[in-house]
């Protein structure tokens, strides 16, 4: 078997659609065949759902010439990749520029600082409005006065619809037209704000608070991405919580689409600390790969609670027996792994709405002899993220395809989002009330209109959970 440096990525989608994005064929005929050959062989080797796809069977082609004939039936690498995916795969994807993907994994992308959600006016309407979830510091949106809770329904003077809302994601400069939301009625105000994107590195530790109420010291952390390059910043937050002696933690993952598996393990260990060396989650690969790992390195299939972050620094642990986690449909990937991995060990009180439902993983594959980054074919920059494994918690729970349901159902109200970290913000307030034993009736809410997307939905790093390269195999 080939030798490869492993970098595992769990790829989740907020929308119940595939993250796969068609790419134009940017190489000539000869190179195109090389790309297609790389795609087929990589999927044949690693794909989690290989057994679902007859064209990926080991005995499907007797010779390289026969395989080439099959590959040449496809007009582009993207068409081949799409056709080789299992019907149950919503998340594998192909990129034509792995440099951008690598930057994205480090939290670097072009951004105007306005993190938003997109909502359909009504079930049968093509019209859409956006709502501001939060604003990144030192960004165009901050300088222009954009604030959480703002509603907008136009881009460059045109009503947002199914046909143009993607411009919010693709365009580097645009003007939004503000609006008001009253129930289900949206009205333009006539005010516009112009925003510009710049290259931006986002610190996922967005805001922290410590609130003391009725002798309870409650720590609050809004964490927006499991980005391994910010592990020290995350650990520092828990050092502060530890020093302040918080008795409860509210972890806000409502907009967190995922990131590093190592960071997920570390965060789980920061919340707890009393389970060092015990199983956080295990991995299930396709039959051939699973047999390989069992024979060569069975420990590779198990992720344990640990006591150090990636820098070697000691983890600051709180030793909590209960944690409150705020979730929405945008909560995915490593965020779901945190919930599923902690559930067998401590009381996880989930507040909000159901999560995305993503428990599989993909691996970054390059067109090189060992599928690693070193030695990648200089003739193109294609890479792919096929699903290669699924995660399972210590008591066997997995396959939560419809997401993880909250203990307390409380959707966000687009017309009353509240201030993040403020004890009066509805989801944070629900957690505080539960901590204090004030269990208010939360059944009289209005279910929100259909959320159809968000800021990062078309970016290559959208909702991934990855493990840093830690081992290799032959």
Comma- or semicolon-separated keywords:
474 residues; alpha+beta; seven-stranded antiparallel β-sheet; 11 helices; 22% helix; globular; disordered C terminus
Q: Helices, strands, pairings?
A:
Blueprint: E1 4-5, E2 8-11, H1 29-46, H2 64-71, H3 77-83, E3 93-95, H4 98-105, E4 108-111, E5 114-120, E6 128-135, H5 140-143, E7 151-155, E8 158-159, H6 167-170, E9 173-182, E10 185-196, E11 198-201, E12 205-213, E13 216-223, H7 231-244, E14 248-252, H8 261-271, E15 279-285, H9 287-296, E16 302-304, E17 322-327, H10 334-342, E18 347-352, E19 360-363, E20 365-366, E21 383-385, E22 387-392, E23 408-409, H11 426-436, E24 451-454, E25 464-467, E26 472-473
Parallel strand pairs: 13-14, 14-17, 17-18, 18-23
Antiparallel strand pairs: 1-26, 2-19, 2-25, 3-21, 4-11, 5-6, 5-24, 6-7, 7-8, 7-9, 9-10, 12-13, 15-16, 15-22, 19-22, 20-21
Helix pairs in contact: 7-8, 8-10
Main sheet overview: 7 strands, antiparallel
N-end to C-end Cα span: 5 Å
Q: Characterize the overall form.
A: globular
Class derived from helix and strand content: alpha+beta
Q: Please work out how many helical segments DSSP would assign.
A: 11
Beta-strand residue percentage: 25-35%
Low-confidence stretches: 1-30, 469-474
Q: Helix share of residues?
A: 10-25%
Give the total of beta strands.
26
* Average pLDDT: 88
Radius of gyration: 23 Å
């Amino acid at each position: 078997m080939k030798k490869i440096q492993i970098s595992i990525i769990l790829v989740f989608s907020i929308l119940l659609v595939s993250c796969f994005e068609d790419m134009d064929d940017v190489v000539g005929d000869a190179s195109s065949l090389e790309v297609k050959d790389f795609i087929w062989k990589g999927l044949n080797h690693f794909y989690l759902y290989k057994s679902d796809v007859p064209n990926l069977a080991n005995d499907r082609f007797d010779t390289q010439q026969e395989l080439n004939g099959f590959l040449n039936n496809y007009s582009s690498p993207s068409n081949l990749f799409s056709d080789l995916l299992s019907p149950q795969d919503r998340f594998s994807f192909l990129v034509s520029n792995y440099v951008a993907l690598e930057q994205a994994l480090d939290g670097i992308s072009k951004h105007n600082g306005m993190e938003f959600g997109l909502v359909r006016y009504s079930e049968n309407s093509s019209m859409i409005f956006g709502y501001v979830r939060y604003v990144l510091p030192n960004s165009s949106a901050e300088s222009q006065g954009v604030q959480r809770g703002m509603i907008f329904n136009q881009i460059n003077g045109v009503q947002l619809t199914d046909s143009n809302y993607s411009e919010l994601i693709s365009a580097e400069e645009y003007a939004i037209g503000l609006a008001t939301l009253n129930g289900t009625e949206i009205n333009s105000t006539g005010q516009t704000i112009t925003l510009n994107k710049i290259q931006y590195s986002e610190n996922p530790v967005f805001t922290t608070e410590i609130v003391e109420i009725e002798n309870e010291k409650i720590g609050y952390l809004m964490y927006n991405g499991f980005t391994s390059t910010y592990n020290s910043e995350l650990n520092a937050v828990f050092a502060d919580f530890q020093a302040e002696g918080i008795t409860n933690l509210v972890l806000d993952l409502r907009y967190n689409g995922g990131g590093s598996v190592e960071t997920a393990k570390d965060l789980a260990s920061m919340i707890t600390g009393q389970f060092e060396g015990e199983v956080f989650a295990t991995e299930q690969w396709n039959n051939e790969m699973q047999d390989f790992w069992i024979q060569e390195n069975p420990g590779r299939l198990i992720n344990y609670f640990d006591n150090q972050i990636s820098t070697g620094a000691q983890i600051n642990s709180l030793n909590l027996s209960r944690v409150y986690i705020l979730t929405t449909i945008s909560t995915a990937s490593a965020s779901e792994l945190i919930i599923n991995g902690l559930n067998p060990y401590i009381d996880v009180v989930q507040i909000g709405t159901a999560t995305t439902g993503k428990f599989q993983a993909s691996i970054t594959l390059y067109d090189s002899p060992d599928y690693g980054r070193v030695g990648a074919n200089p003739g193109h920059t294609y890479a792919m993220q096929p699903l290669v494994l699924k995660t399972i918690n210590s008591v066997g729970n997995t396959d939560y395809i419809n997401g993880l349901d909250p203990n307390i159902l409380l959707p966000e109200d687009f017309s009353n989002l509240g201030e993040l970290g403020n004890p009066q913000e509805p989801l944070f307030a629900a957690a505080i009330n539960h901590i204090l034993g004030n269990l208010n009736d939360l059944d009289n809410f209005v279910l929100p209109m259909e959320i159809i997307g968000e800021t990062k939905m078309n970016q290559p790093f959208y909702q991934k959970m990855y493990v840093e390269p830690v081992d290799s195999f032959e």
